[in-house]
Amino acid sequence: MQLSWIDLAVIVLYLIGTLFVGFWLSKRASKNLESYFLGGNSIKWYFLGLSNASGMFDISGVMWSVTICFIYGLKSAWIPWLWPVWNQIFVMVFLAIWMRRSGVMTGAQWITFRFGDEQGGKLSHIIVVIFALISVVGFIAYFFEGIGKFAAIFFQWDLSMSFLGIEISSPQTYALVIIAITTIYTLKGGFYSVVATEIFQFVIMTISCIVVAVIAYRLITPVQVQEAVPDNWGNLFFGWQLELDWSDKIPALNDKIATDGFGLFGPLIMLMLFKGIFSSLAGPVPSYDMQRILSTKNPSEAAKMSGLTPLVLFFPRYLMIAGFAVLALVFLRPEIIAQGSNMDFETVLPLAIKRFIPIGFQGLLLAGLLAAFMGTFAAFINAAPVYLVNDLYKKYINPKASDKKLVSYSYLSSIALVLIGIVFGFFAGSLNSLTLWITASLYGGYAAANVLKWIWWRFNGYGYFFGMLGGLIGSTVLPPSIRLWFPGVIDIYIFPAILVMSIAFCIVGTYLTKPENMETLKKFYRQTRPWGFWKPVYEELVREDPKFRRNNEFKQNMVNVVVGIIWQMTMVIMPMYLLIKDHQSFFIGLFIFVVSSIFLKMNWYNRLKHVK
């Protein structure tokens, strides 16, 4: 595809603008680590919420979402429960408050706050750093795979090359260039740069989403959609089987469904729900979402920021996803059928852009999708180096290091992590396989230890260390081992085995060692105030202060979580119904959204003014 000079000019101006912001904010960001990684806890919560939403609007995720919407129709709204997508609701309702009360800079520091600084606490601290670095490398590989596929369709210059005996394809070269630009502005501007550019990027992305939705709504009729898809494609609800047969439409999609492993849809959703509860209670993984929570001014603003993220993210994002999916279904079917089994369905999004977006808007849309990639990538590479610099170098090697040296080492750490992630990206498989590995296997190993840390007083640093170690070993060893006996099984079905292994390691590590120091536990419980099994610690605190009260908000929190998940789901399905012109279902979704919003306003938001 040859882009017009207008489209290329829009893209170039966008890239220059992001670099300018990074260099402009570099002086403010380089004062110290708090400024570089948390913005000095001075950024408004609504700016952080927009930034967080922009960080979750990644291009690889959009490409994957367009693919599953194209194939699975309305049922694709359930598939992001793999993450689970509604973990943000748990964070919004209570976990952001608990986490921000710590006053620390990183997730690893938070672990020291929970378990103390004795041997068990140090081991748990180190294992969190290791997990954070592994997950960042995995996500960089995921981004590398997605942005390369995307860019190569639009930029037709042949940039394939050979470097040190390694053959680098054009998509990989494009990915390297875009990653290099993102890394430069992130290094220079730190967290200030990330937030400022992400707000700018979010505006571009939202405009792009509306443009796509308007084009799709004007070009497509309900009859065209019905003729292009099999029975049950437009049905949100499901039974035991998926019940989608593409044989008469696009036969290759039946093979794709079999490869994805989503044919047994009922059991899949049950496993997603089971995994999702554990993963959500565990709290944010040590990445950009946690960074934004810790960068807010206070616990109340941390909760508001986390609540704003899904509110501004999902409706525009799914306008774009559904718009491109239905455009491709109606107008690209002959081209897709012609490619047969050779079709790479993850390129549906860029193919639709080439075909349906007019000159001028193509540049805007591509800038918006580049912004989606750059925002997410920048968030990761700004959040990750603090674990190397603050939690390893400063803590164990050079506690008296100057701010200038620490910021300089942060630059080097970012570059090193990006390079390692790129190396893994060269050997990555499809976006779907990477998504399933990260969500089901890697994050599956994170769940058990990080649920117990909140709710059980006896759980100690050794238990956390061995639980996380068991999870990491399980997520690495169990998937290939189980596939020897059950070829083709997808990672989500392996999650229970990883969870059981991790829980066993947690229990053994905890009971073979002594409890944490009571003073450490009292400080954590008094300051964080979680609900759960804390009776011995609570009784000690009441002896010291008879006015101390336990957290009795479990039932209220769970009700808000259930309503919040429904609230978020409406923002996913309403754009889908709108663009297939099922107006009755759209207005039912809108009614549920309004009612659930009112409920959350009264039962969650209004109560935040009392949170400290």
Q: How would you explain this protein's 3D organization?
A:
This protein is an all-alpha fold and 612 residues long. Helices cover 73% and strands 1% of the residues. The chain contains 27 helices and two strands. It has a two-stranded antiparallel ribbon with strand order 1-2. Strand 1 and strand 2 form a beta hairpin. The longest helix is centred in the N-terminal third of the chain and has 50 residues. The N and C termini lie far apart (55 Å). Belongs to the sodium:solute symporter (SSF) (TC 2.A.21) family. InterPro entries: Na/Glc_symporter_sf, Na/solute_symporter, Sodium:Solute_Symporter. Keywords: Cell membrane, Ion transport, Membrane, Sodium, Sodium transport, Symport, Transmembrane, Transmembrane helix, Transport. It comes from Splendidivirga corallicola.
Short description:
The chain is an all-alpha fold and 612 residues long.
Which fold name fills CATH's third level, the topology?
Answer: Sodium/glucose cotransporter
Strand order in the largest sheet:
1-2
Query: How many β-strands, per DSSP?
Result: 2
Class by SSE composition: mainly alpha
Q: Determine the N-to-C terminus distance.
A: 55 Å
Mean pLDDT: 83
Summarize the amount of helix as a percent range: over 70%
Q: DSSP strand (E) fraction?
A: under 5%
User: What does the largest sheet look like?
Assistant: 2 strands, antiparallel
| SSE pattern, N- to C-terminal | HHHHHHHHEEHHHHHHHHHHHHHHHHHHH
Domains counted in the coordinates: how many? 1
* Rg, Cα atoms, Å: 24 Å
**Which blocks of ≥5 consecutive residues have pLDDT under 50?**
none
Shape: globular
The H-level CATH homologous superfamily, spelled out, is: Sodium/glucose cotransporter
CATH architecture field = Up-down Bundle
How many helix segments?
27
CATH class term: Mainly Alpha
